[in-house]
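::Encoded backbone::
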Amino acid sequence: MRVPDTERDTHFMALALAAAREAQAAGEVPVGAVVVRDNQVIATGFNQPISKHDPSAHAEMNALRTAAHILSNYRLPGCELYVTLEPCLMCAGAMMHARIARVVFGAYDPKTGVGGSVFNAFSNPQLNHHTQISGGVRSTECAQLLSGFFADKRRALRDARPSKS
């Protein structure tokens, strides 16, 4: 599933990383997504489940919702989705229902990723739509953004504890 980064994939992943930084600035887990069709950005999204009080407000879901609204169609054939973190099962299902042609992700998620880490939801031959998936594009940068965010959160929690004297 890992493919060499192309200049095109690197470019669109940079835009997804910019969206992830928006999530981070808002206090959300820094994941960003971009929907592309014919080399044009249709929509972007970033994680917002905390601020929206919505467990489905993942970066991918937000980008898919916006793209569907812009294109006036719940189906997004010919579209690609770039996301900084390997999709979860909920997002993978939405991508397949939207008929996304290709998903490109950055960091692998060994705990909840269904683009090959835990299992590959996209490769099930019983499903009627098959989305191509590629992982690891700008993976180091995507992973460092996430690990830095969680390290900062842990540090803040430690600093907030009363000291033992």
Observations:
- The first helix runs from residue 7 to 25.
- The two ends are 53 Å apart (CA to CA).
- The chain has a mean pLDDT of 94.
- The chain has five helices and five strands.
